[in-house]
Specification:
This protein folds into 2 domains: 5-52 and 361-400, Urease, subunit C, domain 1 (Roll), CATH 2.30.40.10; 54-354, TIM Barrel (Alpha-Beta Barrel). It is globular. An 8-stranded parallel β-sheet has the order 6-7-8-9-10-11-12-13. 54% of the residues are buried. A hairpin with a 2-residue loop joins strand 2 (19-25) and strand 3 (28-33). It has helices spanning 77-88, 93-109, 128-139, 162-172, 187-201, 220-230, 249-262, 270-276, 292-296, 321-332, 337-345, 349-354, 378-383; strands at residues 5-11, 19-25, 28-33, 42-44, 49-51, 54-59, 112-120, 145-151, 176-179, 204-209, 236-240, 264-268, 302-304, 370-373, 388-393, 396-400. The chain is 33% helix and 21% strand. It is of the alpha/beta class and 410 residues long.
Length: 410
Amino acid sequence: MDFDLVFRNARLGDAEDRAVDVGIRGGRIAAVGEGLPAGGPAEDVGGRLVLPGFVETHIHLDKSCILGRCNCTEGTLTEAVAAVAAAKRGFTEEDVLERAAQTLERSILQGTTRMRTHVEVDPRIGLTSVRALLELRKAYRWAIDIELCAFPQEGLLDDPGCEDVLVAALELGADVVGGAPYMDKDSHGQIARIFALAERFDVDIDFHLDFGLDPAHLDVDEVCRKTDEYGWGGRVAVGHVTKFSSLPADRFEAVGRRLQGAGVAVTVLPSTDLFLTGRDHDHDVPRGVTPAHRLLRQGVTCSLSTNNVLNPFTPFGDCSLVRMANLYANIAQVGTPAGMAACLDMVTTGPAKLLNLDDYGVIVGNPADFVVVDAESRADAVSQIAPVLAGFKGGRKTFTRPAPTLHRPA
């Protein structure tokens, strides 16, 4: 049996923990097993981890790389929203495309092969960023699959004309509708409008939700109720949910059961959530990062994601989801091999399920999309922030990052 390419001695991070060969033909995985016959080019990955690429579920390409345009000193959510709102007025399609491409290329080089990017729409920015990101998606489809989630960052009901722009974005080609209910005085009213739009356009939903540390009021209950009402289970995600981190154990468990029952997924954004929350504390500063690994144990679909890169919401970031998994493990005090492996799952299989990807995984018949990680196990990848050495899309190499070499004296 001839293959276009064979990867030898690849570890897939599964329970068997054995090195196998992966045969590629016509851009798809044609065979997985030990000792595949020769008959074409081969690459020996030396027992390293081969994964189907990392999956980014919550990133803002449109407002990345704008630190130089914003003069922020407080580091609060309110300040960040205001600073970006002001900067956004100067965005052009060319500007958004250039900055988004920088961030996207960083993501690709860090091994991301699937992505959901959130993109702001409102009467001021209009469809500028949507058009730019639709062009970006087309230009980089050789390396990554991208879907766009259009959402109103500055409110929907309290921003006259915003819903018209949101509808136009969905008509233009946005794949998902999003919301930020806490930005409207009537948060439940916004949730209702987003579900109505999702039904009208038959798209999934991704909310920015329950940001803050006071759990006295949670919008997640209404999101779950609407999910049940519309039959949208498996098609709704909520991001941030930092208020969950302030819940006592019994109430946290109850929220987990409700999320699992409704089929609502959760995305935790460790870098941004850690940076923005707890700034009014001068001691015993809370982390503000929801313990997603505890929700996993209840059967909730969970992902870890980057959110913002080099802007007032998060003034740093290299787009490495392995680093994000490691950061989360540190914050959540996850240190067992099984726990760290689960953290890697939250940037691979978990977000793939959140995005309803039915062709994800190193499985015969699937697209030959994967990355080579300089580690032997999922736990090692997280504990060591293992570098990604190469990536493939449809069996074609899309990037290489050679391992560093130590030059000893003669």
